[in-house]
Amino acid sequence: MLVLGVVAAAAVVTVPLALRDLDAPARAAIAYGTALAVLNTLAAHALVVWSDGRPTQAFLRAVLGGMLGRMAAVLVAVVAGVLVLDLPKVPLALALLFFFVVFLVMELSILHRRTASTAAGLAR
Q1: Residue 17 has what pLDDT?
Q2: pTM summary value
Q3: How far apart (Å, rounded) are the C-alpha atoms in residues 78 and 65?
């Protein structure tokens, strides 16, 4: 819900200000890049939730192996978007990178708070 809220807030701000002046292929590329970032983040979250409570080795395999798999899937999707769907490269890359960084910061802060609260609970 948080990820979709961020995308909705970004759309409310950027559509009237910047995206209305872009052509249809550029808007499609931005939507495609945003969707890739959202799917990547949801997959990362699903892997972390799945691995929670499992042995450290399973957690590391899920998170690190999942990262490799997600990176490969995003690369294939970007190449397909550019070569097959003929989407403009720059808007696609900018949208993907922008939302990837925003979601990565959110993910790291949530994981940090979660592990800090777990460590505090164990210290008691």
Answers
A1: 61
A2: 0.79
A3: 20
Those residues whose C-beta lies under 8 Å from the C-beta of residue 94, and which sit 6 or more positions away, are 30, 33
* pLDDT at residue number 64: 85
Token couple for 38:
């959202």
**39: exposed, middle or buried (Cβ count in 10 Å: 0-12, 13-18, 19+):** middle
| Predicted local confidence at residue 95, as pLDDT | 92
Round to whole Å and give the CA distance between 20 and 80. 25
Q: Please, are residues 26 and 91 in contact by the beta-carbon 8 Å criterion?
A: yes
Q: What are phi and psi of 23, to 5 degrees?
A: -80, 170
d(CA 111, CA 2): 14
Contact 7, 69 (CB under 8 A): no
Name the residue with higher pLDDT: 115 or 44.
44
Across the chain, mean pLDDT equals: 84
Enter the tokens of residue 58: 């399973």
* Pair 99, 34: CB distance under 8 Å: yes
5-14 contacts at long range (C-beta below 8 A, 24 or more positions apart)? 6/99, 6/102, 6/103, 6/106, 7/34, 7/38, 7/99, 10/34, 10/99
